[in-house]
What does this fold into?
Amino acid sequence: MGSVRLLHCADIHIGAADSSLGSFAQTRRYETLLTFERIIDTAIDRKIQVAAIAGDLFDSNSAETSLVDSVIAKIAAAPDIKFIYAAGNHDPLNSSSPFAGRELPNNLFILGGKDECLTFDDLGLRVYGRSFENTHMQGEKNFSLTPPDDDYVNLMVLHGELKSDLKSDYNAITPEFITSSGMDYIALGHVHKHTEILKLENTYFAYCGCPEGQGFDELDEKGVYIGEIGKGLCKLEFVRVAKRMNIYEKVDISGTNTSAEAAFTVLSVLKKKYGEDYVNNLYKIELTGDIQEGTIISTDEIASRISEVVCFAKVNDRTEICVNYEELAKENTLKGTFVKKMLEKINTAQVSERDMLKAALKLGLKAFVSEVKFDEA
It folds into this structure.
């Protein structure tokens, strides 16, 4: 009984730019292309026979020509691998598709907008699936093509979301759809977080997630599935391919007296936790802990110092000022009057409002000794 060496990837979003990265966003756009090229190099090294790309290869149908040319050239440079593509909601298969009107490599197979089956007799493989033709697509109760009862491996490539019903604009994939499909493995795309290899009756399926995080809400390991599938066989391992990780980290800077000391503390924590590779990651840092009244902590300075070492850093200040508010409120000064009024508001406020008022008190005290940025709250 035969098997196939498979690489399953999806949601590469070549050309995507995360605006929160500022000037680094443009570099990040091209890193998505480099990651795709690294995926293909990995496939060649692992002697992969089929690469299933489950949608959103490009971030949009307006991907620039140089990016599309590079993708096509890289696929053509791996002629021993069959690339199967099911277009997603970001790059639907229509007249605006990045692939429209281009001469495509002989080893690139793009599934159409209707249920389709591609047969590869040399591999003993059939590949089923369909592409988005627009930004939205309704799911199906059952796939309309049923695989023959033979020894061929049956693979499906789909972009969509697992649902209990068909109420979705993004190709709902229900348990009934999976169990009735007759597939050995379904390579899924659309969800950016990878799942474990799942199974319903005789069908294995999984999301591989995206190979590069698209923002600081995508913090898990990013990569692809690689291995072997066959009849009753699914030996796929998750392989990290991301150039960088998006990391959100809280760092306690209690006891520091300057922004330079705070930056040193942050870098020490990052290096200890993430090893020598920590310099390549993208960080959103939240400063916590207690600092002495009068200590000026500049998030811009800290971010600049950290960014001298790591790829990118954004810093938010959530520290608390070590101060006796009750004593300060007794002072016959503008600061004392401010604290007194704020304490009165906090003590009489609804519970849901107190955190906001406490933050306002903290920022107000900071404003007495340094500048407060408009977006610091």
The chain has a mean pLDDT of 92. The two ends are 63 Å apart (CA to CA). The helical segments are 25-45, 65-76, 175-180, 259-274, 299-307, 325-328, 334-348, 351-367. The CA atoms of residues 345 and 374 lie 22 Å apart.
